[in-house]
Specification:
With 245 residues, the chain is α/β, with parallel strands linked by helices. It is built from seven helices and eight strands.
Length: 245
């Protein structure tokens, strides 16, 4: 399990499709890691597992739904699960605050290729550190016999709530109201790399009056057909530079 640790994240191979790379983020592995996080969170919050509230979201990767299903099945004993669906990583931290959760799980591999995926965990104090991740993985190695259960799950459109929060932050900073359309006359190009970030152009910038017509790849597509979702990648930089010009 410890080989899946990547700094403050858990990452591995979740889909076939790349020569020589075979799946190590299996359903069983995901279930054990998620169950370990629940145990860790119970200890961290001094609350019984049956009263924990956890939100779970994912980026646009093709393995997201499989991993989410496995993770949820390992959280059947907790009090409440908020399924936010497609979500950005910063949004999943804020879901802990806005939805009054004890913790959050984001299924993401950040800037890595389509066949990768992983888990990122949050509490109300922020993301877990490297020692926390190691503790969870060591716990996961000892877990056996997880029974598939369906907990108290509520599907929620959290990203709309999060976009509202971002619009308010911008307006407050400018001393304007949303009705003022404070970004009118401003052209902003967003290259979302077919990830989860397209909402920022459509639900934040455009709603505040910005012209986002120069944006590209806003539609989520877990195969990342245009370029990898890595802002340091040469093709990604060329793409956004071209869009801006």
């Amino acid at each position: 399990m410890i080989s899946l640790k990547s700094g403050t994240d858990i990452r591995g191979i979740a889909s076939e499709g790349v020569d020589g790379e075979h799946i190590n983020l299996t359903d069983d592995v995901i279930k054990k890691i998620t169950a370990a996080f629940v145990k860790w969170l119970s200890n961290y919050t001094s609350k019984p597992e049956s009263s924990l509230v956890i939100s779970i979201g994912h980026d646009s990767r093709i393995s997201a739904e499989r991993i989410k299903s496995a993770a949820i099945s390992a959280m059947g004993g907790i009090g409440k699960i908020y399924d936010t669906g497609l979500a950005s990583t910063p949004a999943m931290f804020m879901s802990v605050i806005d939805l009054d959760c004890d913790g959050a799980v984001q299924i993401t591999a950040s800037h890595h290729p389509f066949n990768r995926n992983g888990l990122k965990f949050f509490t109300k104090n922020g993301g877990l550190n490297e020692n926390d991740i190691e503790d969870i993985l060591h716990l996961a190695e000892k877990i056996e016999g997880i029974s598939d259960k369906c907990g108290n799950i509520e599907k929620i459109d959290y990203m709309s709530k999060y976009a509202t929060r971002l619009r308010k932050l911008i307006c407050d900073g400018l001393g304007k109201s949303e009705a003022d359309k404070p970004l009118s006359g401003v052209k902003i190009a967003v290259d979302a790399s077919n990830g989860a970030g397209g909402f920022f152009a459509e639900k934040v910038l455009r709603e505040l009056g910005a012209d986002i017509s120069g944006s590209r790849y806003l539609e989520p597509d877990g195969m990342f057909p245009n370029h990898v979702p890595n802002p340091e990648d040469a093709a990604a930089m060329e793409s956004i530079s071209e869009a801006v010009l």
